[in-house]
Amino acid sequence: MDTGFCSFRLNNSGRFLLKLAFIAMSVFARSSAFVYAKEDFPRRIISLGPAITEELFLLGADDKLIGCTVYCQRPPEAKNKTKVGTAIEVNLEKVVALKPDVVFATSLTNPQAKEKLKSLGIKVVNFPTAKSFSEICGQFVALGKIVGKEKEANAIVNITKTKVDSIRKKVEALPSLRVFVQIGARPLVTVTADSFINDFIEFAGGVNIAKGAKSIRYSRESVIKDNPDVIIIVTMGIGAEKEKEIWQRYKTLKAAREDRIYIVDSDLLCSPTPVSFAETLEEIVNILHPQGELLNADIRRCNADGRR
């Protein structure tokens, strides 16, 4: 029955052409949306955190990086980027002059500077200090999404997690060592459970003697009482060698008696990317467990697997 010009019949050829038209429209819509989304990705980026800067290079987004801090030294190419301040203080005039699409800030960035930039119409994305390896990976993927490198970020994280899991399996059969990590001297400062550095210790087969502490401020008396097997001193603006000499005077300390007091570069331990976390974890494992122990653990594991 004919009900007017809105009613019509299609033969097989007509139906095919109509279907083809719908497919073409769908493809065009999707490609247009992709192009639009891609145009939304920032083209001019300023990083106010060393780890963020390094992560942008890992993601292949360093060509968009127009400025960073004086502490952004990794990779070496980061040294050639325009410097806009320290990890805390920001040269606002310089930042504004660079006309960034986005500024990536951290928990250390001066809060007033962040608010001032926002008031000037500059987009500021804040990345708080990660509390765990899991959070480091999560923030890395979040950064990847913002800069249009989500696929790359997920791939890097998956590879890194596999590597970290492998390292953890290598040490799980080894004896747990009691560890004290010093990141400050006056006052004495350490790390608690609320820090990714605690993951370094535990993933390497250690026990953080300050894990349950209510404050990061610790006393030498408490360290002596807890008597750790290993002391790790982080070079964060403190005289690491001098601190090592001080600990070596306490002959009742097992770490001092057995010469197991180590100095670790703060760049490695305190501002990791997912990739550098895995690399530093290997170094911590080598500190806690000499290579011979790891090799013996591998042999025991192979023997056990062979008996199954």
Structure description:
The chain has 13 helices and eight strands. 50% of the residues lie in helices and 11% in strands. It has two domains: 84 residues, Nitrogenase molybdenum iron protein domain (Rossmann fold, 3-Layer(aba) Sandwich), CATH 3.40.50.1980; 134 residues, Nitrogenase molybdenum iron protein domain (Rossmann fold), CATH 3.40.50. The strands form two sheets. Strands 2-1-3-4 form a four-stranded parallel sheet, sandwiched between helices. A four-stranded parallel sheet has the order 6-5-7-8, sandwiched between helices. By secondary structure, the protein is of the alpha/beta class. Helix 5 runs antiparallel to helix 6. The N terminus is likely disordered. It is globular and about 60 Å long.
CATH class of the largest domain: Alpha Beta
CATH topology of the largest domain: Rossmann fold
Oligomer: single chain
Order of helices and strands: HEHEHEHEHHEHEHEHHEHHH
Give the averaged pLDDT, no decimals.
86
What's the total helix number?
A: 13
CATH architecture classification of the largest domain: 3-Layer(aba) Sandwich
The termini sit apart by 77 Å
- The helical percent reads 40-55%
Categorize the overall geometry.
Answer: globular
Short description:
The protein has 13 helices and eight strands. It is α/β, with parallel strands linked by helices and 308 residues long.
Write the layout of secondary structure elements.
Blueprint: H1 12-40, E1 45-47, H2 50-58, E2 65-67, H3 92-98, E3 102-106, H4 111-119, E4 124-127, H5 133-146, H6 150-171, E5 177-182, H7 196-203, E6 206-208, H8 220-226, E7 230-235, H9 240-248, H10 254-257, E8 261-265, H11 266-270, H12 274-288, H13 291-307
Parallel strand pairs: 1-2, 1-3, 3-4, 5-6, 5-7, 7-8
